[in-house]
Amino acid sequence: MPNAAISLRLQINGHLHDLTVEPRVTLLDALREQFGLTGTKKGCDQGQCGACTVHVDGQRVLACLTLAAQVEGRTVTTIEGLGEEALHPVQAAFLEHDAFQCGYCTPGQIMSAVACIREGHAGTDDEIREYMSGNLCRCGAYPNIVAAIRQAAEASR
Length: 157
Ligand code: FES
Ligand code: FES
Hints:
This protein is α+β, with helices and mostly antiparallel strands. It has six helices and five strands, in the order ββαβββααααα. It has helices at 27-34, 79-82, 89-96, 106-119, 125-131, 142-156, and strands at residues 6-12, 15-21, 53-56, 59-62, 75-77. α3 packs across α6 and α4 runs parallel beside α6. The longest helix is centred in the last third of the chain and has 15 residues, at 142-156. The protein is elongated and about 50 Å long. Residues 42-45, 47-52, 62, 64 line the site of one FE2/S2 (inorganic) cluster (FES).
């Protein structure tokens, strides 16, 4: 028997949303299926690939391992909320450096990269590789991803 639905109020990309879901619903499924925010990708759905990376209160989290109920009262930012007015500098750097091929991993890479720079973990290419290691790219665009993050990090200093 399904668990009783719960009512939540979530702040996503600056907007408040009311939501009624079963307690087991992940933030990833809520974003994609309830709010149509399909920029956040479902890769492995088990915390292995980083495709579902979003920010909660400015920190990067894996939306597939986070319950929607856990983020009530907190601030969620997805790739759709990152560059609403103009491209975020990290988005622009990814474009400039051709840091994607199929693009499936790209929203997660960008959300992770923004946080990585903010955390101060983008000082060298090795550091970028280490702190971006949770974001996999099956197309192997890693050299260009690192170059894009390096440029965005340098521009932010
Ligand atoms: S879909 Fe969340 S880590 Fe792969
Ligand atoms: S660009 Fe295709 S998986 Fe990364």
